[in-house]
């Protein structure tokens, strides 16, 4: 599952150098997973997946602790998504000069997006402030696509989270890409498919 997810993410944003999944093997060992890529360049590019959301967690992607090779400059997933969405990052060319078709992100599996680390309990206490947050969220997040509903629980297990339900999975994926890297009152938001 991890091989498929990370491979498709690399392909989606154009960090592969040839068609197909660039990950040769994946070995899980306790809290760690080790992936081996087919080329050195794709291994360097994979470092840009740091902080990618996967199954409710942000993956930390880096070299093994005993790695002694050259240090490769890289960004985080939020940086790469922003560059991809702005057109700074382009897909590799296929034979004949046509751009390779992007593989769909494996994480685009739901119409519902969960936003975490945006709110505090204090934000939800005052009714007026709660309504303002609800309206601001609807206004900001509707730019990515048609919203079916916005839910901001004030109590229970989902308190301090925001749930956005879009009409399509594509709009939900646009929201995650568009919100990547945003901060709220100094807190960096986390955006996941539910």
TrEMBL record:
From the UniProt record, give one GO term of the biological process aspect: mRNA processing
| Source organism superkingdom | Eukaryota
Alphabetized, the UniProt keywords read: mRNA processing, mRNA splicing, RNA-binding
Q: Which residues form the RRM domain?
A: 138-188
Q: Which CDD domains match?
A: RRM3_U2AF65
Q: Which GO terms describe its molecular function?
A: RNA binding
Query: Known Pfam families for this protein?
Result: RRM_1
Its recorded name reads RRM domain-containing protein
């Amino acid at each position: 599952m991890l091989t498929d997810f990370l491979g498709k993410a690399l392909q989606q944003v154009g960090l592969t150098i040839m068609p197909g999944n660039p990950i040769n093997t994946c070995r899980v060992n306790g809290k760690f997973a080790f992936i081996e890529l087919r080329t050195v360049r794709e291994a360097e590019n994979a470092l840009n997946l740091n902080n990618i959301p996967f199954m409710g967690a942000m993956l930390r992607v880096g070299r093994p602790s005993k790695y002694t090779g050259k240090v490769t400059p890289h960004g985080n997933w939020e940086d790469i998504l922003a560059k991809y969405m702005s057109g700074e990052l382009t897909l590799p060319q296929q034979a004949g000069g046509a751009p390779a078709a992007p593989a769909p992100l494996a994480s685009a599996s739901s119409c519902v997006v969960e936003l975490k680390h945006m709110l505090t309990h204090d934000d939800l206490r005052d009714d007026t402030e709660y309504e303002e947050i609800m309206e601001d969220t609807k206004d900001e997040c509707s730019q990515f696509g048609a919203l079916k509903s916005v839910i901001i629980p004030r109590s229970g297990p989902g308190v301090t989270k925001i749930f956005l339900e879009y009409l399509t999975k594509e709009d939900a994926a646009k929201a995650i890409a568009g919100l990547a890297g945003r901060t709220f009152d100094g807190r960096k938001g986390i955006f996941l498919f539910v």
